[in-house]
Amino acid sequence: MIKNPTAPKKYEQDLNARRLCQECSAEAFGRCPDCSRGFCQEHFPKREHSSCAEKQMKLSHEQICYICSTQVYPDQWSVSQTLHYVDQTKCNGCARYICDDLHTHSKSEEAVIMREGLRGQRYQHIIRYCDLCHPFRGIGGIKRAAQCVVVIGTVIAGIFFFLHP
Question: In what helix (H) or strand (E) does residue 152 lie, and over which residues does it extend?
Fold first, then answer.
């Protein structure tokens, strides 16, 4: 077998391989957190790529604020080639959809850096809490507070029945 000396080696082919956008075949900069496909800056928003746009259309009747029943639109967008924002419009404590204007009591950002080959992508996740979960945001919201109460109650009941004759 004769090898071609000018052909790139296996590791050189891997380094030169570029990720392509699933919609337009341009260079992909970020991965969608929901469908895990690579998209360019124009197709990164959920409404711009078909897989998540179809899913969002099917879930549109569920994506309403649990307090006032207004439609909410989970979205994501790119500011640059390496900085992407993701907003699920869900309360981080109870995981229910809440509107941004009236019922989001507190909102903060959490940065996650994902290494993808030689480059890194920064995803800013918007963390929001409703009025009910805001006092318990230190432990993760009302669901975590209820879980803690159940665990502590179970331990106390176990100790009581163990020590009671």
Answer: helix 142-163
